[in-house]
Amino acid sequence: MTSPSSPQTRKVLPSAYRWELLVILFLAYFFHQSDRAIYGVVAKSIQDEFNISTELLLRTRTYMFTIMALIVPLAGFVGDKFNKRKLLISCLFCWSVATICTGCVSGVWGMIIFNSVGVSVAEAFYGPAATSLIASYHKETRSIALSVHQTAVYLSVIFIGAVGGWISERLDWRHAFWILGGVSIAVGVLLIFRLKDPAKYQIEGDSETETTSKTSEKVNVVDFLKMIFANPSALLLTVGFTAIVFVNNAFLNIVSLFLQGKFDLKPTAAGWNGMFWHHIAAFAFIYVGGFLSDKASKRYPSFRPKQQFIAMALGVPIVFMIGRASSLAAVYALFFAMGVCRGFYECNTHASVFETIPTKYRSTTVGFMIMFAFIIGAWSAQIVGALVDKYGVDRGYELGFAMLSGAWVVGAICVGVAAFFTFDKDRAKRIAAEEEPPRLSV
Cys-Cys with 270: which of 165, 256, 275, 374 at CB 3.0–4.6 Å? Predict the structure, then answer.
């Protein structure tokens, strides 16, 4: 008897649906990042109302990312085992409600409960499931598809940089959370009607897609751990991803405070310029980098991690100089250059590691990477805040950005080792493993 989820019985979707899926998940990720990023934009207003130190203000980000890091491995396994459609819709509604509740708090503890805990737990389940789903539908266009999805991060924070600061000046910071949470709920309704269950649908022209043939294999925790710790490329690329997250987390949460404190900008100007110059460059060059990677990697598979290594290595002095820049023009130019490096790196964040791991472990691997990266990256903004409290605005931010550039040094070294010494071997092992016939359960 033919199983309900077999290719013979699934409904056929037009080939264009893989791009519709990408658009839908782009919108979800856009507001996923908006709901998280708004805190950094309105942080000064929150600090003034609650009368707290910079270190305590940013400690809430440490709690958020640490909690997310602890939850996301479970999210990865859930994403590989359970219905991705229901999972994505559920977590979107949960983080939307938590965002609305954040606007109702009366102190730091309320901020921690609803924003640091509520939003982070719900958001933790989004990334692994969404990334795995996109990768399953996009094979030849994987870097481009994942790059498009990633650009939601850049556009959302540019949007938040302008709109969030404007709302906080003309209304107050609470309205920013209420408005964003409400719009996110509307996106959740869209997902209910347009996000299709891959177990029930087949893309036109695909006789057997990865969504059913490979990812249907059961995920065993022990087997996954054996695979990942026997895969030096995956581990080294995870360290590189950790370096990116460490810097990105700090940048997102301190940049508005940095511009307001060092250059005396108003919230709207600080939010817009802090988010725009960096993220518009990353937005443009993630497409350039993704296009180059998809083309070059057909002949030279290790091109993906080599591109990441070059991008991060070039970014080290750029990040270092931000804290020492003495004019707004120089700061904005450095923000832009840092964004170029970030775009060239992040177009291959998952595409590189997916080359070295079996398909059935994609969602779990993303969860593992996020866990490791967020455990370390959770502390970056708080550390910078503590440096500012101790040494003052000018010296504190100099030391803070020097620390962040050091993280990219470590990341570049690890990615370089993977790119030039281990990647080709681990990729060959993955291909050989996937060509083996599946083991029968007894």
Answer: 256
**Contact assessment for residue 201 and residue 63, using Cβ atoms and an 8 Å cutoff:** no
d(CA 64, CA 113): 10
pTM of the entire predicted model = 0.75
- Report the C-alpha gap between 333 and 36 in whole angstroms: 25
Number of C-alpha atoms within 13 angstroms, CB side, residue 34?
Answer: 30
Among 75-79, 237-241, 314-318, 376-380, the minimum mean pLDDT is found in 75-79
Helix, coil or strand: residue 217: coil
**Going by C-beta distance under 8 Å and a sequence separation of 6 or more, which residues neighbour residue 298?**
none
Range name among 79-93, 172-186, 309-323, 400-414 with the lowest pLDDT average: 79-93
CB of 243 within 8 A of CB of 312?
yes
- How do residues 174-196 score in pLDDT, each as one tens digit? 888 898 889 888 888 888 887 77
Q: How far apart are CA 5 and CA 380, in angstroms?
A: 45
Q: What angle do CA 36, 280, 34 make, to 5 degrees?
A: 15
pLDDT digits (tens, 9 = 90+) for 244-286: 999 998 998 889 889 999 999 988 888 889 889 998 998 889 8
The helix/strand/coil state of 436 is coil
Angle at alpha carbon of residue 202, lines to 86 and 152, rounded to 5°: 55
Compute the distance between CA of residue 154 and CA of residue 3 in angstroms, rounded to an integer.
42
Q: Tokens standing for 363?
A: 């969602």
pLDDT score of 201 more than 70: no
Rounded CA-CA distance 102/32 in Å is 15
Answer whether 115's CB lies under 8 Å from 60's CB: yes
Q: How far is CA 329 from the centre of its chain?
A: 28
* Half-sphere exposure at residue 138, Cβ-oriented, CA atoms within 13 angstroms: 26
